[in-house]
Amino acid sequence: MDPDKRASPKRFSRLKGLFGRINSQDLLKNVWQVGYAAIIIAVLNIFFQFVISRKLGPVQYGEVETLLTINSIILVALAAIAFIVTRFVSLYKTREQYDKMRFLANWAFGFFFLIGLFVLVMIVMFSKVIAAFLNISDYH
Q1: 104-140 pLDDT tens trace
Q2: Are 22 and 30 in contact (CB under 8 A)?
Q3: Do 93 and 101 touch, CB atoms closer than 8 A?
Q4: What percent of the chain has pLDDT over 70?
Q5: Which residues contact 128 (CB under 8 A, 6 or more apart)?
Q6: Model confidence at 16, in pLDDT bands (50, 70, 90)?
Q7: Do residues 109 and 118 make contact, with C-beta atoms less than 8 angstroms apart?
Q8: Cβ contacts of 64 within 8 Å, gap of 6 or more
Q9: Which residues contact 127 (CB under 8 A, 6 or more apart)?
Q10: Is the pLDDT of residue 12 over 70?
Q11: Closest Cα to residue 135, out of 80, 77, 66?
């Protein structure tokens, strides 16, 4: 008898068990919730874009879009840090190390607060330079 024939049903049963766990009702429910939320956010974003472009006009709309793009770039970098913090919080939660969770939460809050304060001060200090670089007429 061929040894590969005996190994193949074992592999298939492992994969079937893995897909059975992945395809649980809770996971599908959460995927649908995320999907619905993404659709709602996309529709609200389109509505926002139409309203803001109508109210502002082409020049100011371009300025707002430039600032929103810069904001999105910054948020992607901060989201990476937030995912790392979330990973450690879930690790500490499973090990019931609540003191480490509390320390990490306090540290992350302080870190993000200081970074945000620093960025705010830098933007206020260099708002004229940023406005001149982006060709924005009103730097306030």
Answers
A1: 888 888 988 998 899 889 888 888 887 888 777 776 6
A2: no
A3: yes
A4: 79
A5: 139
A6: low
A7: no
A8: 52, 56
A9: 139, 140
A10: no
A11: 66
Yes or no: say if 78 and 112 are a contact pair by the CB < 8 Å rule: yes
Find, among 29, 50, 69, 74, the residue nearest to 37 by Cα: 29
- Using CA atoms, how far apart are residues 15 and 1, in angstroms rounded to an integer? 24
Give per-residue pLDDT as tens, 31-58: 888 889 999 999 999 999 899 888 988 8
Q: Which two tokens stand for residue 60?
A: 């100011």
What Rg value do the Cα atoms of the chain yield, rounded? 24
At 23 the pLDDT is 57
How high is the mean pLDDT of the chain? 81
Rounded alpha-carbon distances, angstroms, from residue 84 to 14, 31, 58, 90, 130 = 30, 22, 39, 10, 31
- Residue ranges of the alpha helices (H) in 1-140? 3-22, 25-56, 58-94, 98-125, 127-133
